[in-house]
Amino acid sequence: MRLPTIFVFHATLQSISNSTIKSFVLLLCLSSIFYSLHTQAQIPSVTKQSFNAKLDRSKIQLGSVHAAVVDIEQQGTLYSKNADITVPIASITKLMTAVVVLESNQPLNEYIVVNKRQNQSNKNAYSRIRLESKLSRGNLLRLALMSSENLSATVLASNYSGGHKQFIKAMNQKAKELEMHNTQFVDANGLSPKNISTAADLARLATAASTYQQIRMYSTTPTYTANFKNPRYRLGYSNTNPLVHRDNWNILITKTGYIHEAGRCLVMVANIEGRSIAFVLLNSFGKRTPIGDAGRVKRWLTTGSSGPIIGAALKYEQEKLKQL
Q1: Is 306 a catalytic residue?
Q2: For residue 28, is it within any domain?
Q3: Which of 5, 97, 201, 252 is deepest in the core (most CB within 10 A)?
């Protein structure tokens, strides 16, 4: 076992009788102690700088038309691509829905009735939930996040204090508080293409959402069986992000989204080499492209190169870029 420097210094003095040599040894040991402490103090800053230093933005290629990758700890943008262009965001909307629900402090264990008025909120909404059945607010929020259940999000907004209109107002107010200056919400489920934002703004939302324990837990639930009341029945749900099932990913929050106007979207926060990294990937081709892009971002962060993208995804991206 290696002795601490101070004990080695004391033992050395005890074994030397000559005062001149003692003075020399004292000076040498004190210099060694100072150098050791100074070196230790420099280690954290060197480690933090090394993560960003190795990144080359020419070595990353993504199929998503809009993207932002942000180091939450250092509040620094590692990569951006058309990140300030306003676009429809589909069910990514539900991250803000979750924030507003949790900040309302309404009881998560309260059972809520799903009624016809809520079901008619959007003609394109499909749900397996039976009308007039009941589920707790917390589990409705879970289904909205993990499985992107549209009716769940609408029910949550309708049962907000002041109703649906006040809920949407609270969503837009929260966006202003988070300095999401290019964001607008008109519904709670994201089915309207009028729910718009930018990749940069959504990185701010992802950062804020990742601080809520319930969002972290609900959005990353791999599978869940909901037990409804009145009548009693059960429905099984799976997470729309397959990465939550993989051991090589440590995902803190996640939300997928899709409508025709928005394309395939993915927003998540994951732990990469001890850092909380926000991923925002908007408007990509097919279900697999945003998942593949997440892998490419991770590969770029850890190895310095993302690798290529498939031809169909590349063609889609190039066509969409021409329309910007």
Answers
A1: no
A2: no
A3: 97
37 lies in some domain: no
Q: What is the CATH number of the domain that holds 304?
A: 3.40.710.10
Can you tell me whether residue 274 is helix, strand or coil?
A: coil
In the residue annotation, 148 being an active-site residue is answered as: yes
Give the active site residue among 94, 174, 255, 320: 94
Catalytic residue among 148, 152, 284, 306: 148
Within a domain: 107 = yes
* Active-site residue (options: 64, 80, 91, 158): 91
Total domain count for the chain? 1
To the query of whether residue 58 is one of the catalytic residues in this protein, the response is no
pLDDT in tens, 66-101: 999 999 998 899 999 999 999 999 999 999 999 999
